[in-house]
Amino acid sequence: AHLDSNEPLGSRVRNMMTSGKTDSWAKLPKVADSTLQNLASDYITINRISSNSQALSISVFLPPNYEPKPITDLKRISNNIIELDLSGIPIGEQEMDLVAQCKNLEWLELDKTPITDTEFNKLAGLTKLSMLKAYETGITDQSISILKDLKGLKSLYVWETQISDAGFYKLKESLPQLQLNHGIDQKLKASFIEKDSLLF
């Protein structure tokens, strides 16, 4: 299809990015708008990734009184969830059971959540996952074996976790294509701060 020059650049770029995906997304089950409206709330936004697409992007925001049910209710549409943002939500096993059911998930944000290796185990089998944010969580080297099996993983953000340098090394060996963002070494950080303070 030719690109209409009047089309905004943002949507053109998005179309180019998603054109390779639309084949796999075409096989997703159909979801009615009414279902999405029922599951959405002031604290859960659900969007179709492109118009008329069955591929969904979901962001969850922290309500004043948090309970897992609105997230676990998403299991009705779990096969359609391609992007899921749970950043900063006090999730546990129940919510991670929902994540485990999202077999077509490509983009997952679990940063600043209280998850540990136990909950992280539930990511096993999410073979389409390409971007994962898990920084500021309680995961340790025990989670490396789960990460090593996520063969589609291209970007991983894991600073402020309990994963060791040796763990990161093993991970890079297993997934050479992985862009690993594990933050700045603490000693280096301290020396940067010292140098900065000397300037003032």
What does this molecule look like?
By secondary structure, this protein is α/β, with parallel strands linked by helices. Helix content is 34%, strand content 14%. The chain has 9 helices and 7 strands. The radius of gyration is 19 Å and the shape is globular.
Radius of gyration: 19 Å
Element order, helices and strands? HHHEEHEHEHEHEHEH
**Biggest β-sheet, characterized?**
7 strands, mixed
Compute the number of helices: 9
Report the top-level CATH class.
Alpha Beta
CATH fold-level assignment: Leucine-rich repeat, LRR (right-handed beta-alpha superhelix)
How many E strands? Answer: 7
Query: What is the subunit organization of this protein?
Result: single chain
Distance between the termini: 58 Å
Structural domain tally: 1
Shape annotation:
globular
Strand order of the largest sheet: 1-2-3-4-5-6-7
Could you state the CATH homologous superfamily?
Ribonuclease Inhibitor
